[in-house]
Design goal:
The chain is of the alpha/beta class. The protein contains seven helices and eleven strands.
Length: about 240
């Protein structure tokens, strides 16, 4: 099996046209191998959010090539992107995005209900959701609603929901942004544990201390990768996930 999970080549993204055109990405290239834990950093307006939207199949690049888990998704239409997004990617958001009237269990089960490829029974969906909650240490909170959970517990439910379809990639957008330091550290330990068990994680963060939990960090500025490093060793922008130039 090809160990490349993400291969993005010369991505550009232009918003508007003519004199009003703004280039959010300027020929950015990125490779992420299976099993990596990568933190993406950068100031506001750097292009990191645009990059994550493209990697998350929520938007398409203006030009360039993007291959996710062996499939070229560069030219897919919106419905095709939605299918790839549901099948391949588990999302963890800063604001948790839990449905307030549903229990933790029901929230975790939601992606299974939207999957066209999932034909499991209600009993099987519940079993899988309970296993996902157990993986984040919240099986005993399965029947609690979000307002009965702390912020850290809500984010753990969100992580369990991201795991339920066994995605190729976990995409975490500022996963500790709404949490206190202790809860944030707990979330990072969970993500590290998932990575040790084989999960591939791409995480956006503004905090260097949070990025330090990842195995690899890169910094985006003005639509390109400014630097890319592994275990504290600075890499050139063309580094490809395993070898220094």
């Amino acid at each position: 099996m090809n160990d490349l999970l993400i291969e993005a080549v010369d991505l550009t993204k232009v918003y508007g046209s003519g004199d009003a055109a703004v280039s959010a990405l300027r020929g950015l290239s990125l490779v992420v191998r299976r099993g990596e834990f990568v933190a993406v950093m950068g100031p506001s307006g750097s292009g990191k959010s645009t990059l994550m939207n493209i990697i998350g199949c929520m938007d398409r690049a203006t030009s360039g090539r993007y291959v996710l888990n062996g499939q070229d998704v560069s030219t897919l239409n919106k419905s095709q992107l939605a299918a790839v997004r549901n099948r391949e990617i588990g999302f963890v958001f800063q604001s948790y995005n839990l449905l307030p009237r549903f229990t933790a269990l029901k929230n975790v089960m939601m992606p299974l209900l939207y999957s066209r490829e999932n034909h499991s029974t209600e009993q099987e969906r519940e079993r899988r959701a309970l296993a996902a909650l157990e993986a984040v240490g919240l099986r005993d909170r399965a029947h609690h609603r979000p307002n009965q959970l702390s912020g850290g517990q809500q984010q753990r439910v969100a992580i369990a929901r991201a795991l339920i379809n066994q995605p190729s990639l976990i995409l975490a957008d500022e996963p500790t942004g709404n949490l206190d330091t202790k809860s944030g550290q707990e979330i990072m330990h969970i993500l590290q544990d998932l990575n040790r068990k084989g999960a591939t994680i791409l995480m956006v963060t503004h905090e260097a201390g949070i990025a330090a939990h990842a195995r690899r960090a890169l910094h985006v500025r003005d639509g390109v990768i400014e630097w890319d490093r592994l275990n504290g060793a600075r890499m050139e922008p063309g580094w490809e996930g395993g070898q220094e130039r």
